Amino acid sequence: MTIIRSIASEGAYDTLFIQGKNRNIDLGLRVHLEADQQLHIQQLVIENTFLPLVKSGDGLLSIGRLQIKDFGGDGINLWGNGLSIHQLIVRNSTPTRPYHTLRVTALTETQILAALQASKQQVYDWRLLQWLETQENGQTVFYSPGYHSDIALQAYRPKPKTVTSRYFLPPNQTSEPSSEFMPLHLPVEQLETLALNFAPSPLDLVTGSQARSLTMISPINRLLDQVAETPYSLELDTKNRIRAIDLHVPLANPQLKAPIPNAPEDLAGIAEVTIRELDIQTNDANSQLFMLSEQQRYRNFKIGTDKIVINCRYPWWFVANTLEDSVIGNANKVQINQGRSSLAKVRIGDGQDNSKYCIKPSSCSTGEVSLVGLGKTGHVVPTTVRIL
């Protein structure tokens, strides 16, 4: 991924305008601030990138007005505490990767467009898709991994470079394998072995109204569908072939029902996030907006506390696996899908396995949260959330 601009020191800027060259691989602005550092940008405009803004470290990044447009992936990736935005404007998100994993037997325009049409998916430019080449029953098959774009904010604290292999145990294995660690860096050569352990189900023929296409779903396909739900990046060669997948957090193994053990990065999680005004417009049914989906602690979020203007087709404009000490919405200026029959809602989990609110089992849980001015029905939230 090409970083257009990087800032790793405190300071102040009046206006920054950043324009990428490739909205499938460019990162617009990369900011890292240590806990005692502060950076203020009065006006920031980022266009034509894959990821407009990535912020890491626990220092405070404050932005007066942030406008992101013409981008192919997430809007903001937040990897640490401390983000304050007065006004966030999001326009023209154009996903460059499919939402669901795509499978073809030849990299031809006819096959790729047919696979996209059969799965009811659209991408900005099919020629930009990245492909994983593998063999199935002696036949060469190509997969383009799915990617779930969160066009406003995706927040998580990345894991260390290694993770205990219990996340990848086969379903019938009760003891740890001999190797204690499984790398988060997954070369192509390891993917088939991991897929057979992680998603060992036999090939199924997908049919019916929920089918993405009439095709065989292999263990590799199942694994890549799990990767699509996980923050990740790709290593590519010069021909857009995938050489490795780098996971930023462990895969959510469906075979593991118990909450994962506490880890320092999970308990630290992400905190102190304020975005006072939202102005977000999208017509893509698969574009998610705010996503706090990991098995980590999320606290002190204040979102849309001055103004909310949102038009989206995804059913949940704000999703959190768990959340504490937070306020979403305001009492005076809320417009969500105005003029549309569907009203996007809020979904918040509780981290408790087997509860009706569980998104992912977590060692963290949902504490006091207030939803203000967002309506009193339709939201999926546990009892610790007050709807005002």
Secondary structure blueprint with pairings:
Blueprint: E1 2-7, E2 11-19, E3 26-32, E4 38-49, E5 51-56, E6 60-71, E7 76-78, E8 83-93, E9 102-104, H1 109-118, E10 132-136, E11 139-144, E12 150-155, E13 162-164, E14 181-183, E15 185-187, H2 188-198, E16 204-205, E17 216-217, H3 219-228, E18 232-236, E19 242-247, H4 264-268, E20 270-281, E21 288-292, E22 298-311, E23 316-320, E24 326-329, E25 334-336, E26 345-348, E27 369-372, E28 385-387
Parallel strand pairs: 1-3, 2-4, 3-5, 4-6, 5-7, 6-8, 7-12, 8-20, 12-21, 20-22, 21-23, 22-24, 22-25, 23-26, 24-27, 27-28
Antiparallel strand pairs: 9-11, 10-11, 13-14, 15-19, 16-17, 18-19
Mind explaining what this structure looks like?
With 388 residues, the protein is mainly beta. Among the domains are: 2-95 and 152-158 and 271-371, no CATH class; 102-146, no CATH class. The chain has 4 helices and 28 strands. The strands form 6 sheets. Strands 2, 4, 6, 8, 20, 22, 24, 25, 27 and 28 form a 10-stranded parallel beta sheet that branches. Strands 1-3-5-7-12-21-23-26 form an 8-stranded parallel beta sheet, with no helix packed on it. Helix 2 (188-198) crosses helix 3 (219-228). The relative contact order is 0.10. Mean pLDDT is 88; it is low at 173-181 and 202-215.
Please compute the radius of gyration using only Cα atoms: 21 Å
Spans of 5+ residues with little confidence (pLDDT < 50)? 173-181, 202-215
Number of strands: 28
Amino- and carboxy-terminal Cα gap: 43 Å
Tally the helices. 4
Tell me the quaternary state.
single chain
Helical amount: under 10%
- C-alpha geometry: globular
Q: Please give the largest β-sheet.
A: 10 strands, parallel
Structural class call reads mainly beta
Q: What is the arithmetic mean of pLDDT?
A: 88
Beta strand %: 35-45%
